[in-house]
Amino acid sequence: MTLIEPATLRGSLVTLEPLTPEHHDELVDAVRDGEVWNLWYTVVPHPEQMRAEIECRLAEQAAGSMLPFVSRRNSDGLVLGMTTYMAIDASLPRVEIGSTWNRASASGTGTNADAKLLLLTHAFEVLGCPAVEFRTHWMNAQSRAAIERLGAKLDGVLRSHTRMANGSLRDTCVYSIIASEWQQVRSGLEHRLAKHARGTGTVG
């Protein structure tokens, strides 16, 4: 298997399936749940931009720099959103998990933790990555907290790194998990999912 080869990853709560143009209508429905494109510190496609977003991600897949997925909830088959392996370095190999968004109503249901478990397991145990990276906006406190809850460590902050759609400059927080930390990170994710299954806590 190569880093850019599409794969279907099935977990206890969600299945990550390779993105295709046929996902368009389901993704439009998902992004309208909570209108998450209105958060200025995130990059989430507007419903009218969804087809172009799909085409862009598939073009990056064809170029070898991205492997995009759609997240589908196992209990009812509902599409929740999108996620990717991006910034792929096939020579190392190394990937970044990013360009992720989910419908607002799925927050706190454990589906995001399950998706991260799937992506990290595949990256470390199948692809053989020595490190997996995460990036987010300095102002996106929810995303930063979620990444830190995984056990990722902050490598640094890239000041005035990229320009947002509203013209503002983004300070980008760069996090990573390395292979020697993976077993501990996996145990933490599995514990969170087990708590969710027992109904004794919530995960996100």
TrEMBL record:
Domain of life: Bacteria
UniProt-listed Pfam families: Acetyltransf_3 (PF13302)
InterPro entries from the UniProt entry: Acyl_CoA_acyltransferase (IPR016181), GNAT_dom (IPR000182)
Start and end residues of each N-acetyltransferase domain: 14-153
SUPFAM superfamilies: Acyl-CoA N-acyltransferases (Nat)
Protein name per its UniProtKB record: RimJ/RimL family protein N-acetyltransferase
Originating organism: Paeniglutamicibacter kerguelensis
